[in-house]
Amino acid sequence: MVHAAGVVGSSAAAGGLGVWYPTKSGLVVTGEETNFLTTAQLSQPTVPSSSNSLRPNLSEVVSSSTTDTLNDITESKKSFPIRHGLLRKHGKIRMLTTTRDAHIYLFPYWTLDFINQNPKFDSISEDVVGWWAKATWQDGLVPKLGLDHILQPSSRVKGNPEADEMYNDIDEDVDIASLSTTHISNLLTPPSTPPSPSSPTNTKTPKPRTAVPPFLCYLHPVSSSPSQQTTIRRVDTTPLLLSLSLHLAFLPTDSPCPLATKQKIHPTATIAARTTISPTDVLIGANTTINQFTTIKNSVVGANCVIGQNVKLTRCVIMDDVEIGEKCQLTGCVVGWRSKVGKGCKLGEGSEVAPGYAVEEGVEGAGEVLGGFEGLDEDVGSGEEEEDQEDMEGDDTAPADE
């Protein structure tokens, strides 16, 4: 995968690839978590990239963590130190604080050995990708992480026929650039001066440094045309679920987006007379019944739902198999699967109804989770865990067992 990009030599182990996206363009959600990503520009390819190539959006990851880690470092040190080793390897770096890891990765087979070698890893984004990226430039990390053993071809395939065959497929010597008729000429370099016969000769051969393949970042571009903008989002919070669902509901039926629906209202849905349903930003699922005098704006209603009379839904996501009683007013709410909202309820922005929960009649509130688990100690078991994350100026101690 990384061989084809012309980033590493054909004799090296394969690198990896991850996907990140900007959080401050297109679909913007207040309070969305972000990552602190540091990248370096890739070297120019021998063969020029085509107009539809992804290469302009690729860069090499040299550090990956969360913005919370960045804030902790800057708060404790009153600055953000950068290691000299990073600047020696990459004279120009780019630091991004408004991107987020999409949790889409392409890993080579040897990554399993890397994870098994470091049992304290508990995060793909921060630990696996973060330590891998830092090992490409930070002295001393390669042996501490066990990469010097893992990346040796003889060690990688020893005693494992299946891995042997897979690694051989990965490391097959294919020089893509040599197959092209388009080349860039090399600049002539002056011949090196031979050593003087009287000068002493150092017969000690230094141990070659293990080459760590790069981990690449694909940063999803922002289109200048909103109608052509594709969306990549990692949905792991209720506000993100609400915002993305309403965004998809707003897409026109002829949108090129594969997530756009061809029909805003499913043919099997039953819509009573004297209802008001916005034609551009409402989705209604199969076998759902909407009773009379109901108003629905900028909302998504799932399948097999029953919406009572005189109900008002604005900016809501109603999951499948939900029953909402008459005269309810819901704004900015997410109602979980197979739940029930009693008649006369008024739920405002930020309200959530847990799946399978029945809200009593006449309940009013905003920003509350109804029916969720409360009182759980989120810190149970975390007191014994050791903090392994280091900043780019910290020591070289890796989480691998000595």
Structure, described:
With 402 residues, this protein is of the alpha/beta class. Helix content is 18%, strand content 20%. The protein contains nine helices and 23 strands. It has helices spanning 67-77, 84-89, 111-117, 124-135, 141-144, 147-150, 153-157, 161-170, 238-250, and strands at 16-22, 35-40, 58-66, 93-106, 215-219, 270-271, 276-277, 282-284, 289-290, 295-297, 299-301, 306-307, 312-314, 317-318, 323-324, 329-331, 334-335, 340-341, 346-347, 352-353, 358-359, 364-365, 369-370. The strands form four sheets. It has a six-stranded parallel sheet with strand order 6-9-12-15-18-21, with no helix packed on it. The protein is elongated and about 100 Å long. The two termini are 32 Å apart.
Largest beta sheet: what is the strand line-up? 6-9-12-15-18-21
**Rg on CA atoms, Å:** 28 Å
Compute the separation of the termini in Å: 32 Å
State the share of residues found in helices, binned by percent. 10-25%
Strand content: 15-25%
